[in-house]
Amino acid sequence: MYPIEIVQPMKNDLTSVGFEELLSAEAVDQ
What is the pTM of this model? Predict the structure, then answer.
């Protein structure tokens, strides 16, 4: 896994433009 300090800004950028965070296999399947 990547360190959270590196990943968090990228996640913020993606979620701010409409991407949804998928943190579990169940969420991906929906």
Answer: 0.46
